[in-house]
Amino acid sequence: MTVARAQFRDAVISPTGDVLVATVEVRNPGTAVPITETIYADASGDHFLSNPFPTDLTGRFQFYLTLPKRVDLLIQAVGYAPYTVKDVDVIGIVTENMGATVGTTDGGLIPHGLSGTPTAAVLTPTVANEFASITGKDGVNLTVAIKKHDGTPGTAQNIYWRAWL
Fold first, then answer.
1. All residues at 6 or more sequence positions from 28 whose CB lies less than 8 Å from its CB, including other chains
2. Residue 3 pLDDT > 60
3. Do residues 9 and 99 touch, judged by C-beta distance below 8 A?
4. Fewer C-beta within 10 Å: the chain N or C terminus?
5. 62 — phi, psi (to 5°)?
6. What is the DSSP code string of 46-99?
């Protein structure tokens, strides 16, 4: 059974526009108290995040909660004063998502993180003279075929993707 979770995603950018690697702490609104709810790394799996958790190397972060909720976010980056983003709504409907997967193989699954089964999706393979297509989709994953031009299975590769409801 697929459980749609509430999601928030953003990036940490300095006042001068530089990407910042930082930590993000999810707090109860108007307090310095971290939330006690489980924070998930994805829409439907059992991958959890600590609180606080790090951004990726491009300053981006996303997290999921079981239910929609208003929170504050404490952002801390080396060389900058801590900053609290107040009254952030973690929403329950994700209608569009995109990303990149590493080492995807023919028949592999890409978790899309949407609130339902996508109505459309696109893939971009990264190995020359090979193509990728979607052979299945459900409320959790896109199933991917990676083929060479002779129809044999393609090389494991990074796949850039976008899906929407």
1. 34, 35, 71, 72
2. no
3. no
4. N
5. -150, 155
6. S-EE-SSEE--TTSEEEEEESS-EEEEEEEE-TTS--EEEEEEEEBS---EEEE
Burial of 130 (0-12, 13-18, 19+ CB in 10 A): middle
95: alpha, beta or left? (left if phi > 0; alpha if psi -120 to 50): alpha
Residues shown for the chain: 165
Using one digit for the tens of pLDDT, what is the confidence trace for 74-94? 999 999 999 999 999 998 766
Spatial separation of the C-alpha atoms in residues 107 and 27, rounded to whole Å: 40
Peptide bond into 52 cis (omega under 30): yes
- Residue 102 makes CB contacts below 8 A (sequence gap 6+) with 158
Q: Is the pTM of this model over 0.85?
A: no
Cα–Cα dist 73/150, whole Å: 51
* Domains with residue ranges and CATH for the chain: 6-90 (2.60.40.10), 96-164 (no CATH)
Residue with tokens 């089964």: 117
